[in-house]
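Hi! If you just cloned this repository, the fastest way to understand the data is to look at a raw example. We've pasted two of them here, unedited. The first protein comes first, obviously.
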Amino acid sequence: MDLVVSVVSLLLVLILVARGVPGRNILVVLAVTLAVVVLVVGVERAGLWPSDWRTR
């Protein structure tokens, strides 16, 4: 279930970011956004996320 929530969240973030970007810059913004989301999810799943920021 966590994987489904992560994928849906990733897609929503990419769609929202892409809506406000004109023309050819969309690919760069999408790549950077994807990299940031993957980095955050990876850090959290590896247990390196600060314990004060966890919700559960």
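Ok, and the second one:
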Amino acid sequence: MIGIALVYGCILLYEWKYLAARNRRRRTYFVVLGSLAAMFLGFEAIYVFKEKWALVNVVETVFGPIQKLLFMKQ
């Protein structure tokens, strides 16, 4: 978890310097840093809940009813 935070901290510093060096608008800062924060929180959530949650469960939840409908007709 600390490694994830360090990597995202480095990305944050790089992005901040890039935006400042090119005199970007305030809105661009919000978009870039907001998306970085959302990705960081999502990645941390996946790391914390890796034992309880898996991508397979999401795919089954989304496509399970469709699969049942398709195989009911056969």
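That's it. A detail worth noticing about the second one: The two ends are 48 Å apart (CA to CA).
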